[in-house]
UniProtKB/TrEMBL annotation:
One of its GO terms (biological process) is tetrahydrobiopterin biosynthetic process. It comes from Hyella patelloides LEGE 07179. Belongs to the pterin-4-alpha-carbinolamine dehydratase family. This is Putative pterin-4-alpha-carbinolamine dehydratase. It comes from the Bacteria.
Length: 124
């Protein structure tokens, strides 16, 4: 019965020529491999104002007021969803601290640095 439903659905989609988009997240096996200490140190150098403890990278962004800080947080949704990778956020009035780590990998991966770069661009 399930195969019949799939066939009927496939025929309907083909017949109606319904356009659709498939988004592939950036979260691929190569991006989710743990980085070495050397790689982390090299990558953190390319991200001004970001710091690391070797397991997490973070940066605090300061804005003129609470509303602007929340606007910034809202801008983080699209790139985080697109990457399939979500930052930890702490909001304190006009300050937003963004922390990134790849929990599944147990530390820092290329995903963290890629998203950090996108987040930095949004703040500028």
């Amino acid at each position: 019965m399930n195969q019949l439903r799939v066939i009927i659905l496939s025929c309907l989609v083909s017949f109606l020529l319904i356009p659709f988009t498939v988004t592939v997240a950036e979260n691929t096996p190569n991006n989710s491999m743990l980085l070495s200490e050397t790689e982390i140190n090299q990558k953190i150098e390319t991200l001004p104002e970001w710091t690391t403890d070797g397991k997490v990278i973070s940066r605090t962004f300061e804005f003129k007021d609470f509303v602007t800080a929340i606007d910034f947080v809202n801008q983080l949704v699209a790139p985080a969803e697109s990457a399939g990778h979500h930052p930890d956020l702490a909001i304190s009035y006009n300050k937003v601290t963004v922390s990134l780590t790849t929990h599944d990998a147990g530390g820092l991966t290329a995903l963290d640095f890629s998203l950090a770069e996108k987040i930095s661009q949004l703040a500028n």
